[in-house]
């Protein structure tokens, strides 16, 4: 019963951490490409653009919480099966959460650097974007960051499963 409680607490923590990560991430990506939010994300999420930083944080929160659920379920379910105690599940679960956040942040940072190096006016000119985009370079760079963050979270599933599996072998 204690392990089930720890499992639920870890999943809830993952959801909260993912939502917070999304809110912070969007502060960076808003700085990189405000047009990405004004011409795409605010419309997509139905958020008024009067307070753009708060709106970007709201979008990040709403767009990311579910990743915490999606990414945490495979390793934590495996942990319920393979790890012998609630204490071990908690310790390994926290390691998984930290690893996934670091991987996701690294993916976003690599994408940010890639975008700065690879996306310029010439590249933006050959990519089809809606006509109303005033800053196509920033728009593309912010979009690359967002996509890379989701990729980082997806990779985090496999890393999390590996962490749990490794911990189960060391007991």
- Overall pLDDT: 96
Give the termini distance in whole angstroms: 20 Å
What is the beta-strand fraction? Answer: under 5%
Number of strands: 0
Helix content: over 70%
Q: Radius of gyration over alpha carbons? A: 18 Å
- What is the molecular shape? elongated
Task: Give helix and strand order, one letter per element, not per position.
Answer: HHHHHH
Main β sheet profile:
none
Count every helix, treating DSSP H or I runs of 4 or more residues as helices.
6
Structural class: mainly alpha
Structure, explained:
By secondary structure, the protein is mainly α. Helix content is 86%, strand content 0%. It is built from six helices and no strands. The chain has helices spanning 2-32, 34-45, 52-82, 86-118, 121-126, 136-169. Helix 1 packs parallel to helix 4, helix 3 (52-82) packs across helix 4 (86-118) and helix 3 runs parallel beside helix 6 (136-169). The radius of gyration is 18 Å and the shape is elongated. It starts with a helix and ends with a helix.
Considering the chains and any ligands shown, give keywords for the structure.
6 helices, elongated, about 0% strand, mainly alpha, about 170 residues
């Amino acid at each position: 019963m204690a392990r089930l409680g720890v499992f639920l607490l870890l999943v809830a923590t993952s959801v909260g951490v993912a939502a917070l990560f999304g809110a912070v991430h969007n502060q960076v990506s808003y700085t990189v490409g405000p047009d990405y939010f004004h011409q795409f994300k605010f419309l997509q999420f139905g958020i008024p653009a009067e307070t753009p930083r708060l709106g970007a944080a709201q979008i990040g929160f709403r767009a990311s919480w579910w990743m915490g659920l999606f990414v945490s379920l495979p390793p934590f379910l495996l942990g319920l099966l393979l790890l012998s105690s609630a204490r071990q599940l908690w310790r390994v679960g926290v390691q998984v959460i930290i690893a996934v956040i670091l991987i996701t942040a690294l993916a976003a940072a690599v994408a940010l650097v890639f975008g700065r190096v690879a996306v310029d006016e010439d590249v933006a000119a050959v990519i089809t974007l809606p006509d109303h985009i005033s800053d196509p370079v920033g728009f593309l760079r912010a979009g690359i960051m967002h996509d890379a963050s989701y990729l980082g979270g997806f990779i985090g599933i496999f890393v999390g499963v590996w962490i749990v599996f490794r911990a189960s072998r060391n007991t």
